[in-house]
Each structure stands twice: as C-alpha cells, then as structure tokens.
Amino acid sequence: MAPKRSAEDGLSAASFPSKKSRRAGDDDDYVEVEDDLSYQEDASLVPRGATINFSALTRKLAQTRQPDVTNDVGEGSSLDTHRRQQDSLVSHIFMDQDFSWLHLKPDHASRPLWISPEDGHIILEAFSPIAEQAQDFLVAISEPVSRYAKVPVPESIISFIRERTLSYGKVKLVLKHNKYFVESTHPETLQTLLKDTVIREARVHTQVTDNSIKAATFTTSKAPVKGNLIIPGTKEADKKKEEAAKAGGSTDAALFTSVVGVDADEVDEDDDNVHAFEIDDAKIDDVKKRCNELEYPMLEEYDFRNDTVNANLDIDLKPSTVIRPYQETSLSKMRARSGIIVLPCGAGKTLVGITAACTIKKSCLVLCTSSVSVMQWRQQFMQWSNVTDRQIAVFTADQKEKFAGDSGIVVSTYSMVANTHNRSHESKKMMEFLTSREWGFILLDEVHVVPAAMFRRVVTTIKAHSKLGLTATLVREDDKIADLNYMIGPKLYEANWMDLAAKGHIANVQCAEVWCPMTPEFYREYLREQSRKRMLLYCMNPRKFQACQFLIKYHEDRGDKIIVFSDNVYALEAYAKKLNKLYIHGGTGQVERMRILQHFQHSPAVNTIFLSKVGDTSIDLPEATCLIQISSHFGSRRQEAQRLGRILRAKRRNDEGFNAFFYSLVSKDTQEMFYSTKRQQFLIDQGYAFKVITHLDGLEDLPDLVYKTKNEQIELISSVLLANESEADLGSDVRAAEGDLAGTVTSKDFGMPGKFPSVQRTTGSLSALSGGQHMSYIEQNKSANKKLAREQQPRNKLFAKRDKDKAAARKEARAAGRT
Ligand SMILES: Nc1ncnc2c1ncn2[C@@H]1O[C@H](COP(=O)(O)OP(=O)(O)OP(=O)(O)O)[C@@H](O)[C@H]1O
After folding, report:
1. What pTM, to 2 d.p., does this model score?
2. What distance in angstroms lies between residue 349's CA and the mean position of ligand 1's atoms?
3. Would you state the pLDDT for residue 157?
4. CATH 3.40.50.300 domain position(s) in the chain
5. Which residues make Cβ contacts (< 8 Å) with residue 475, sequence separation at least 6?
6. Worst-scoring range by mean pLDDT, 228-232, 546-550, 561-565?
7. Which atom of ligand 1 lies nearest, measured to the CA of 350?
8. Which residues are CB-contacts of 611 (< 8 A; sequence separation ≥ 6)?
9. What homologous superfamily is domain 325-502 in, according to CATH?
10. pLDDT, position 543
11. Residue 239 to residue 236: CA distance in whole angstroms
12. Domain 507-727 adopts which CATH fold?
C-alpha cells in the first residue's frame, strides 16, 4: 500500500472524539494535545494517552507531508529510501517517533492495536468499536501478540515474546488429598526444574526411591477437562453464552477472534497426560519463588467441579443480586486460576469475592486486615448470598467460631492466622481447625498491605486449592509488591478508574492541590527547626487553617458533605476545635464514633467531620462528596488512593453533572510539597488530573476568618513551639487504624524521603473545578511522574539494548556535529 494512502487512512480512523483534542488539533499544537490528556473531563473518552499520541502524530504527519508526498515516494520505492525521505521531511518534528514508514494491513481500519517496533509499546486506539474488549484482553495478555497487531510485528519483538512466553503456563501447582504436586503435561519441563537444587530438595519421594531424574519417576494421570465457568448473578451473560453455544461457539471465543484475528480453537492444546511430583508443604513458597526465577511461573488452577474429596458448600447469590459488567469480567478472568483482581475503591470488590465463593462452592477462608473488616465481610456475605448463620463463622480476638457441617466459610484476619506466639487454648484449637482441612478457596482482601512474611506464614499453614487477592492499588512504597505474584498468582484483571466513573459505577472526582504560603513567622521557625516539629509547623500554618475554613464554607454552601482528613492528631484536634467541627481519631471510643458518623449521615446540621487515619478504610460513608486533606502520611500513593475512595461511593454520583471534590492542602515551599507530588502519582497514572490552586478568591473577605491578625498567628506559633516533639508523631494513630495489622507498617511503606525528581508545573486557567472563577491555578505537568515511573521500571534486556544503541548513536551524532 502506498505510504500516502496509509497515512490518510490512519487519519480517517483516528477521528478525535474529545472536545479538547479537537480544539488543540485545530490550533495545530501537538504539545497541547498531549497535555490535554490529563484533563479529567476527557478521560472517559481517552483512557490511554498513547492512543491520542499516535493519532495526533498521524494527523500532523498527513498535514505536513500532503503537498508532494506522492512524488516523494512512489509505488515500489524501497522502505529504506522511503524512510530516509520521510526523515528529511518530518523527523525534526517527531524526532524518532515517526512510524509512518510502517505498512498498514489491508484490514487495519477494523484493528485497534499498534506496536512500536522501537520499544515494543502496544498502542490501543481508544475510539475503536472494540477498544474495550481489546483493553480487557491487553490487561491479561500472556500469549505471543504477533497476530494481534494492525501492522506486521517486527521480528525482534516476535522473538522477544516467544522467548519470554516459552515456559509460561507449562507448570501447575496442584493440591490433592492435602498434598502439593508440581504438575505438567511436559515431562521434560519437570526434569529441567528438578535439576535445580532448591526444587530437588523440596521434592517428596513417595513411591519412587530412585533419586535420578527420569520421566518414569513421575506420577502420571489424565488431564481434567474444563467446561465453561458459569458465574452466578450474570443472567444476561449466561443467556448470551447459551446463544453463542447454540451457534457453535462461546462469547469468549468470539471476543478473542475479534480482537486477535485468530480463531481461539486454533490454539494448540497440550497433550492429555499429566506428570507430577510431590513437594514438601513447608517448602512451597521457596519452590514457587524458584520457579519464577527460572521463568517457569507455576499457575495454580483448581478443577473444583471435579473435586469429589472436599464437600460442596451449598451457597448461591440471592436472586436479587445482580453483579455489574466489570465484576463479571474480572471473575471471568479468574475462572479457576489463582491471582489478583484490581478494582478501584468503592467498585465492589467484596461482591466479586462473594460471587467467586458462590461459584466455587467449596469451603472458603476470607482474610482481612482488621476485625472491623471481618464483621463487614460477614455482613456482606449475608446481604448478597443465601449463606446461613451456621455456615459462616468468624475468627477474631473476641470471637472464635467454627461452622457446622462439612463445609463452610470462616472470616478472619491475616494476623490471627499468621500469629504463632502466645496463643490462647481456644486460638490453638481454632488454628487446628483451619490447618487440618483442605480449603477450596482462600480470599485475600487488601493484598497490597500485607507484609510478605505474614503472607508466607498464611500460605504455608493454610492449604487452599485456589487463592483470590483483591486490591484497589497494586502499589506499595517498599519493593514487596512483586512478591505477591508468586505468593498468590498473577494479576488477572484491572479496571480503569476513569471508565467506571464514566459509567456511573464510581463518582467523578475533581482533584486539586491547594498551595498555602507559610506566614513569615512560621516559615522562619520551619527553616530553623531540625526536629520532627517541622511537620507540625507546616500542618499548623495559619494560611492552611484559613484555606480549610474557606473550602468548608464554600462546599457546605453548595450542599456538600465534607470529610477533612488529618493524620496528625494534634493538628486534627486543633483544626476541628477552632472551626467548631466534630472529629474522630484512634482515641475516640466506639460509641462516640458511631454517634458522630450517624450525625454526619443523617443530620443537616453536621455537614463536616474531621477524621484521622482511622477513616482511610472500612468506614463506608456514601454521603460524603468532598474531601479536604490537611495532613497526610508522607508520600504514600496507596493512602492517597484509599482516601479518594471515600468519595468514590458518593450516593449522588449519578446526579447529572455531579462531581465529588478532593483537595490536598499543602504548605508552600516545605517538604510537604515533595510528599504531595509523590502521593498523587498513582491517581495521576489512573488518569486523574490534579489542578494546583494558588489563590482562593474571596478568602480575605470571609466573615470570622481564623488567625487573621498577626497576634493570633504569633499565639498559634507559640503553642506549636511549646508542644512536645512527639505531637508530630503519627505512629499511635496508625496502629489504631491498621487494627490487627498493628506494628506491620513501616516508614518505607509510607513513601518516606528517598530519591525523587523535582516537579515541573505550568500555568493554565480554571473553570472546571468547582464551576467557579474563585480560584486561580497552576496545572501540574505529568512529566515528573512519568519520569519516576520510568526510573522505577526495570528495563527489559531487549529495550536496554535498544537504549544502549540509541545512546551510542546519539554520542556518535554529537561527535560528528563537533567535527
Ligand atoms: N453489583 C452491585 N450492585 C449493587 N451494589 C453494589 C454492587 N457491587 C458493589 N455494590 C455496592 O458498592 C459499594 C462499594 O462496595 P465495596 O465496599 O465492596 O467496595 P470496595 O471495592 O471493597 O471498596 P474499598 O476498596 O474502598 O473497600 C457497597 O455499598 C456495595 O454494596
């Protein structure tokens, strides 16, 4: 196909759906188009920046080249000549990003994916009618992608994918009669694994004493056959499946074919014979880790329908329970495999877990991070499923129940199960109950917060056929997140926050960082102070008090319900008392907490409450529509996302034009700005844009503005300086909030200072936020975050080599330029 036509075809396929993109495109300003991607109002239309990035390039290219492109490159010109000519025309604009030399497939208009031959990036066209399915597929990609692209996939990338996936899916970890087996349909793979010392030493020699590694020493059986998994609560989907089955195929297969362009039935099946060797329970974790290192990750699959050893659990979703499409999709990715499902806060992970339990229908152990969550899980099981009181039991410090009958559900905390010291007689008995049986299913809530050592104890003491981890943020500030991959399984599904907001499943949120200048007195003390009191000084900055007061008034007048978060308890009490609002922290008794929360929910007189870290999780307040953060836990991306989660459940989220609001108040030119940028990184990666507000118009005119006079400000600074250094601590309240995970949270987990690039910010205008002209703002440039993300990602060999080649070429060019 002639290159000119290719470029134009690309252009016609790439019609811009977003109003911002269109406007910027008309101005012919490429940089602006890219910046616009961070605007939240467009995010539903452009879920991934790269999509527009490519489209914008194509458009620009077509415009630039149009006059004489046919003469430049005629039919039959060599690719190289063409590329050279292209380079001379447009390369100064696109540098090394010009891919117009790639040939498009004849049916490219109906295919949504591009693959960059330079770095292997897959680019998805979000405007394609099958973009959603393609995205779904990309999230869980584990097969060679050579057949899926719009353009032929470069050889180097094909061989890279082949190399990486050669061993994937060949080895399984299977639990049979309370014993663990490493299984494969490829005996030679088992032999390879047994050459490794760690794996060889973990092997249990049952029937065969011969230590030599021969295929004949493995136990062999027939591979089980799996039919389609039917997820309860999805009547519509089941109907579709039935129709598809009648027509001779499944919906999954149809989807696969539409995105990939290859008939799913063509995919090779392994041979029927399964070979296996047993491994020592205590060494499971080491074997899994070793297999990962050897690039033979062990999949854990449970053929629950053919498990006749473990008693069935007679539970189902209530007929009134209807699961949402993304909940169904996430479960269809699970099938019977172990792994992790990532859904935004408030998107309904609990129901996903419950539906999985109702699908597997075997004994189930649910582990949560606190006893409050234990009670919530139990209550949700009762609400959504027909489980009876006798079938569900709770194991916490206060309650040690067993279920009646052969099968049932136990809900507990990680620490109750992982704790090995000073156990009471009852706890020991309960642990015997848990460890002596085989569990069909173990549900792991909030998997991202659980320390690796605790997980290890759980997975080695509890025998479960399949595991499902649930989380909203697969991030943590220590480097332990990768451990989850081998301890639980791979990420099975991840939903896009922006998509769920666009469909009304979670609220739309406007995010802003409000810069509060320090008063000269506070700043002088801040610079002088070397102790932890520095933190108190930037939290207690009078201008921050004023901004908080202004925003509360502004949003109360709009009819919002506001939660003000402060991790620092000293500041929390000082603010709440000064502004005359109710507050809850770790020291607030249960009765008092309930009373305050009820007032907030039901009384029109209580529209604002102050919460410490205890409110980050497990407090479900669908009334809240505005969040103001006055002090937070250093650079924790996870905490920032969890806090945002408090307003994503806003009851009013489906009201037309409804927005929830999330403000972070930051004292200017202090360490707090540095933490704030780091905290926002996860949400920015999800597509949220943080506007930076530098001025709150009308603040000075607020009646009763607090700390208005110099004297009041000086009084405030005296009290801060008189306060104990320990008032700057967050520790005690953190423990209270973490509940049963007390003592497991480290400073590193909260993103304490480390190497961090400086932030760039650029100016813009604000009218979308709060619908008002009351504030002027600076928009944060995303590049610092992108840079950080790049720095944190270990480079693959393939790309590392390209980087090296590119650097060498650049060096050469520079040298040539000098001579
Ligand atoms: N399919 C559904 N139909 C109706 N309501 C639902 C459905 N799924 C979830 N919900 C409701 O959405 C709310 C949020 O659910 P849930 O508490 O499970 O969220 P979550 O993802 O666990 O959030 P977090 O990470 O913040 O704990 C709950 O009130 C729940 O009842």
Report:
1. 0.64
2. 6
3. 74
4. 325-502, 507-727
5. 448, 481, 637, 638, 641, 682
6. 228-232
7. 18
8. 563, 564, 565, 566, 572, 583, 584, 585, 619
9. P-loop containing nucleotide triphosphate hydrolases (3.40.50.300)
10. 94
11. 5
12. Rossmann fold (3.40.50)
Distance in Å, CA 346 to ligand 1 centroid:
5
Helix H or strand E encompassing 14:
none
Instruction: For residues 161 and 142, give the distance between their C-alpha atoms in angstroms, rounded to a whole number.
Output: 9
pLDDT of 49 over the 70 cut:
no
pLDDT, one tens digit per residue, over 497-517 is 888 888 888 888 888 889 999
- Contact residues of ligand 1, CB 6 A cut-off: 322-324, 327, 343, 345-351, 472, 645, 649
Tell me which amino acid residue 771 is: G
> How far away, in angstroms, is 499 Cα from ligand 1 center?
16
**Predicted confidence (pLDDT) at residue 314 exceeds the cutoff of 50:** yes
Q: What is the DSSP letter of 385?
A: B
Residue labelled with tokens 């597997």: 360
SS3 of residue 413 by DSSP? strand
Chain centre to alpha carbon of residue 682? 8
Q: Which among 385, 400, 381, 399 is positioned nearest to 443, based on CA atoms?
A: 381
Taking the C-alpha atoms of residue 480 and residue 473, their distance in angstroms, rounded to an integer, is: 13
**Span from the CA of 405 to the centroid of ligand 1 (angstroms):** 30
What is the ipTM metric for this complex? 0.97
Nearest CA to ligand 1 atom 1: 323
140 confidence band (pLDDT: 50, 70, 90): low
> Residue 6's closest CA among 145, 109, 103, 143?
103
- Beta bridge partners, 385, equal 317
> Which residues, at least 6 apart from 657, have a Cβ–Cβ distance to it below 8 Å?
none
Give Cα 361 to chain centroid, integer Å: 28
Q: What is the Cα–Cα distance from 193 to 294, expressed in whole angstroms?
A: 8
CB proximity list for 523: less than 8 A, separation 6 or greater: 669
Spatial neighbors of 303 by CB under 8 A, at least 6 apart, are: 224, 226, 336
Task: Give Cα separations from 216 to 16, 171, 190, 191 (angstroms).
Answer: 61, 18, 11, 11
Residue nearest to atom 8 of ligand 1 (CA): 348
> What residue has token string 């990035």?
53
Nearest CA to ligand 1 atom 23: 346
Query: Is the pLDDT reported for residue 594 higher than 50?
Result: yes
Nearest protein CA to atom 16 of ligand 1, as residue: 348
